[in-house]
Design a protein that fits this description.
Blueprint (H helix, E strand, L loop, with lengths): L6 E3 H6 L1 H11 L1 E6 L2 E7 L1 H8 L3 H14 L1 H8 L1
Parallel strand pairs: 1-2
Antiparallel strand pairs: 2-3
């Protein structure tokens, strides 16, 4: 879902980037449209960092799942 208040055209963003920054400060993100299609999302750096990494528990869970699923392959490779 895109908050319609966060939408800005690429032309306006280019001419008035401080407006983009204000939208991010107020709404959390700004969506920049190019040719009437959402093209870019501007977000706070702290939010981008949080989205970049997975919790350790999830990584451990996925690792166990794939190790078990491919156990025979890993055993064959270990020989």
């Amino acid at each position: 879902m895109i908050d319609t208040r966060s939408i800005i055209s690429i032309t306006e963003a280019n001419q008035n980037f401080s407006k983009v920054a204000r939208l991010v400060d107020q709404l959390g993100t700004a969506v920049i449209m190019k040719n009437n299609v959402p093209r870019y999302i501007v977000t706070e750096f702290s939010q981008a960092e949080a989205q970049e990494s997975l919790p350790d528990e999830l990584v451990d869970s996925l690792s166990e799942k794939y190790l078990e699923k491919n156990k025979e392959l890993y055993e064959a490779l270990a020989k």
